[in-house]
Amino acid sequence: MTVRSALLLAVLSLTACITADAVKTQNRERLSLLSIGMTKPQVLAAMGTESIQVFDRVSGLPAGKINNPYRTEAHQAGGQQWEILLYYTDLKASDGAITDDELTPLVLKNGVLDGWGWSYWRGIVETYEIRIR
Fold first, then answer.
1. Which long-range contacts (CB under 8 A, 24 or more apart) does 104-111 make?
2. Which residues have CB under 8 Å from 110's CB, separation 6+?
3. For residues 67 and 109, what is the distance between their CA atoms, to the nearest angstrom?
């Protein structure tokens, strides 16, 4: 391989790199595809279920993976099964860690999308006195 072709390959691979910021932006855009009453498979199809290798914006080196959803939780309360799908949608601090305040909860009740966002989830937690960590 010549130096020129190696350089071209390096440039092409860097332009195809996905950053955490790109994942965040994509997930925020996908929220607009949601509507109350969607089934869990419909929500997952709209929001994605991929594990995405992300790269550092400056160095272009691998910086880890972001899973979609990033995390899930399940709770029983009020005779209902609550499932929370948390997606990475915000950046509060450029510290390399994804914290709860950088996630958006999608709230499913008995397998159907009931609402999303922290204020919505907190209302459910208070109403049904759900114990969370």
1. 104/27, 104/31, 106/34, 106/43, 106/47, 106/69, 107/82, 107/83, 108/40, 108/43, 108/82, 108/83, 108/84, 109/80, 109/81, 109/82, 110/80, 110/81, 111/39, 111/40, 111/81, 111/83
2. 80, 81
3. 22
Cβ atoms 81, 110 nearer than 8 A: yes
What pLDDT, in 10s, does the model give residues 84-116?
Answer: 999 999 999 888 789 999 999 999 999 999 999
pLDDT digits (tens, 9 = 90+) for 43-78: 999 999 999 999 988 888 999 999 999 999 999 999
